[in-house]
Design a protein that fits this description.
Elements (H helix, E strand, L loop, with lengths): L2 H32 L2 H8 L15 H11 L6 E5 L10 E6 L11 E8 L5 E6 L4 H10 L8 H25 L3 H4 L9 H15 L1 H15 L1 H11 L4 H5 L22 H11 L4 E8 L7 E7 L11 E5 L6 E3 L9 H14 L5 H28 L15 H30 L7 H23 L1 H28 L11 H30 L30
Antiparallel strand pairs: 1-2, 1-5, 2-3, 3-4, 5-6, 6-7, 7-8
Helix pairs in contact: 1-4, 1-5, 1-13, 1-14, 2-4, 2-17, 5-8, 7-13, 8-12, 13-14, 14-15, 14-16, 15-16, 16-17
């Protein structure tokens, strides 16, 4: 390929990466944590006040009948949980959405649960399950924007499209030297070359992962528009009409069915095992059980098959007869079109395979965040003005200094905000009315404080301060659990399951990593090239000797 064409692709790669890089850092860092969304919510859920109230599975028919008898509206939809863990307050639960609220407005939902008291009567109460993992997922889906709505998702779609362009142009730029430089990680005094080599190797090795992330994110952002266009061009409007509500009939509605005649959950689970022996059921989702179109979806996961959603797949049964109504979304039983669509969901959300796949996605997500961070650092360093001979250190360009401050503030501010939000989830529980709203304020308060600090103090100083802040607030996550073990009177708590202990262990490892980076950043600021944008005492240090190797990152020695 001609050199001028390479330069064009390099310019495209640089600017698409710069425009989308910081938003993608938030998306990938939050996305890596979202892989373990369930353990995070279990970690943040307080202990159940009365574990003995968890109704045995064989008593669930009695629970359903008495709850619907006292609250007929519950027949429209409720869930029976098969598993028991810290994030499930009761066996039977349902949501009530405020009238007029949007489909994606989670704050409009009220959550209720039902148990059986000592006399066998239904005891219904409002519960407040942890929404921490869901909010981290929102940060991932709308790249940290403070609103989860259609414009936010469209913005994410545009960012993902730029991300795809950056991937393609980056591969084209690297192609001429791919074979020679693929495994070349030249460690030495030229840190810019070392970081560029590392950036290229990580990008090429994880390229299939990033292509799937970019394309699937664009589809997720614009799927309504894609379906609309497909309906108009291919189906001539017949597709959307199939989902419209039928005209109200003048005939009187049939009398409500007796929910006490539904098959027990144990029989429905046994029927599911006959259909899908590899499916591990997690919950039964009942809908319109008092009407003529009653259905129960048995949700579960099958590690040997592709699941259509992050929570797994389901088979739809008639709760009265056990007849199979729909198995198109059952892992391992999907038809070709559904399997094709489900593959995008599964590859994006790691809803296939076992725990090893989830850990691989977690590592790839963190590596992706580093990829965008290092890309911005390479851009900053390539535009740094160098001192000449023994002259005074030059004043760096305004765009370079602003980009350095923005990179440090946005990236590290989001890391600090997420960690502080996890800590606050336990310390604010029971002390505030709207815990979810307060946690969002904690995140955005820390995030914007980090951005403001970076612009006030400059990238070099703020990088040190924010990395130490990230180390401290991330270390406070396992420390909070330790306090919950030792001094439960403080209101904190700790769970002993492997999943929740894993959250503490990962947080401790990340805190150690941030502390190491903070020390390396401080050392680089003191002893590195004084004409760098990352130098603190540039005016007091001698200029570098001619030909001295370039340094790049504040994290480098």
């Amino acid at each position: 390929m001609r050199a001028d064409h390479i330069r064009i692709y390099k310019s495209v790669h640089t600017w698409t990466g710069i425009v989308s890089g910081m938003a993608l850092f938030i998306a990938f860092y939050a996305g890596a944590l979202t892989v373990f969304k369930e353990p995070i919510e279990r970690w943040a859920s307080p202990p159940a006040p009365a574990p003995a109230q968890q109704v045995p599975l064989d008593q669930v028919p009695q629970l359903i009948a008495r709850t619907i008898g006292d609250h007929p509206a519950v027949a429209r939809g409720f869930t029976i949980h098969v598993r028991e863990n810290e994030g499930i307050p009761a066996r039977m639960a349902w949501d009530v959405r405020d009238p007029g609220a949007g489909d994606h407005d989670e704050s409009s939902k009220r959550h209720f649960a039902a148990t059986l008291d000592a006399s066998g009567a239904a005891s219904v109460g409002e519960v407040h399950p942890s929404r921490l993992g869901a909010f981290i997922d929102v940060l991932h889906r709308v790249v940290g924007l403070p609103f989860d709505n259609d414009p936010g998702r469209w913005f994410m779609g545009v960012v993902s499209a730029l991300y795809a362009v950056a991937l393609i142009s980056g591969v084209v730029v690297l192609l001429p030297s791919l074979v020679k430089d693929f495994f070349a990680l030249r460690v030495g005094r030229n840190l810019k070359r070392m970081w560029l080599d590392a950036h290229n190797v990580v990008g090429i090795v994880s390229l299939p992962f990033h292509i799937v992330m970019a394309l699937s994110a664009v589809v997720f952002a614009f799927h309504d528009q894609i379906y609309d266009l497909q309906d108009r061009l291919v189906h001539e409007g017949k597709w959307s009409s199939a989902f419209q509500r039928p005209q109200t009939s003048a005939a009187p509605p049939p009398p409500p069915r007796d929910v006490g005649t539904m098959l027990p959950p144990a029989e429905l689970l046994a029927r599911t095992r006959e259909i899908a022996p590899g499916l591990a059921p997690t919950m039964l989702q009942y809908q319109q059980v008092a009407g003529p179109r009653a259905v129960v979806r048995v949700w579960g996961k099958d590690t040997s098959a592709i699941s259509p959603r992050a929570m797994g797949g389901f088979v739809a049964l008639d709760p009265y007869s056990g007849k199979v109504l729909d198995s198109d979304y059952l892992p391992g039983r999907q038809n070709v079109p559904n399997l094709f669509i489900s593959s995008f969901f599964a590859l994006h959300m790691a809803s296939f395979g076992n725990a090893a796949v989830q850990w691989m996605y977690f590592v790839l997500g963190l590596a992706g965040a580093w990829l965008f961070y290092s890309g911005n650092l390479l851009w900053i360093e390539s535009r740094r003005k160098s001192a000449r001979n023994a002259g005074a250190n030059p004043v760096q360009r305004l765009d370079t200094r602003l980009m350095a401050s923005a990179t440090v503030g946005i990236c590290l501010g989001s890391v600090c905000g997420i960690s502080l939000m996890l800590v606050a989830a336990k310390w604010l529980h029971g002390r505030v009315g709207d815990l979810t709203g307060c946690l969002q304020l904690v995140y955005y308060g820390m995030f914007f404080a980090g951005v403001a600090w970076a612009f006030m103090r400059g990238a070099a100083r703020a990088g040190i301060h924010l990395l130490w802040t990230a180390a401290v607030v991330t270390a406070a996550i396992p420390l909070t659990s330790a306090i919950g073990w030792l001094v439960p009177q403080t209101g904190a708590w700790a769970h002993g399951s492997a999943a929740t202990l894993g959250v503490d262990a990962v947080a401790a490892a990340l805190a150690a990593c941030f502390a190491w980076m903070a020390r390396a950043t401080a050392r680089r600021a003191r002893t590195g090239r004084p004409d760098s944008v990352w130098a603190i005492e540039a005016a007091r240090q001698p200029a570098p000797a001619p030909g001295q190797a370039l340094s790049l990152d504040p994290h480098a020695r």
